[in-house]
Design brief:
This protein has two helices and 17 strands. The protein has about 300 residues and is of the alpha+beta class. Among the domains are: about 30-120, Coagulation Factor XIII, Chain A, domain 1 (Distorted Sandwich), CATH 2.70.50; about 180-270, Immunoglobulins (Immunoglobulin-like, Sandwich), CATH 2.60.40.10.
Length: about 300
Amino acid sequence: MRSVVRLFFGAVAGTLLLLAGAGTANAQYTSSVGLKPSSGQAGSSFTISWNFYPCKGPVTFSWNGTPMWSANATLTETSGTVAATVPGGAQPGTYPVTGTCTNARTGGPLSAGSRFTVTGTPTTTPPPPVTTTPPPPVTTRPTRPGTTTTPAKPTTTTPAPTTSTPPTTATTPPATPGTPTTSTTGPKPGELVLDHPSIKPGDALSASGKGCLPGRMVTLVSDGTEVGTAYTDSSGAFTAPVEFTRIEAGPHTVIAECGVRLTGAVDQVVTRSSGGQTGTLVVLVFFVLAGITVIRFR
């Protein structure tokens, strides 16, 4: 009876020793993979920490089943770290990162893994466009050189008297664009106004207009000859002196070209006073000749 009890306790003790040894042996087989950080954007960097035993040869790490990194492991070098980068084309989501090596004792695989969460794809905001403001138009008026007008020489013939009547502007209705206008009042849009209805040689004449394009050069022309220039202001108005290079009696049309065409009219009046002087000279000559004749015949 005692021998049976001893055998029983001996069997129990042996079983416990075997279980303890098996537990110790199994405790030596460790496999783990850690990620730091465990989340980030596509293209960001992270670190893989690993611990494999017993392991021989390289440890291969895969991203979502695709091998991408590796590390060397031996029975003495059972842990380490590997620098890794999230694939640039990874879409937001959670992906497995798995490490695998060969068991040095059984020849089978040892594996462990963790999970990485892709939070988004980095975006680049383009800089705002740069806008430039053009400078305002220059509204300075050109300075024209003075024009010398030579008066007509007196002649010995007495011209027929001429009568010129200046145009009446008191009851003239507002002119439409393109209609000649002569007045002492300010111009209306589409008008060219001359400050005198008629002038004599040497008189000053000024033209004012409105309705042109802003910042444009204005050329004043009469009978195919340029008689003045100016620049329009921001409202399309201008004022310029008019200088005729030729003296011709009668009405003259002045045309302003400024993107549109404006017209006005003025009369040139030429007066001659040589007729009386010529008559007096003829009488004096007659009396001198008559006196010489009388003295000679005496």
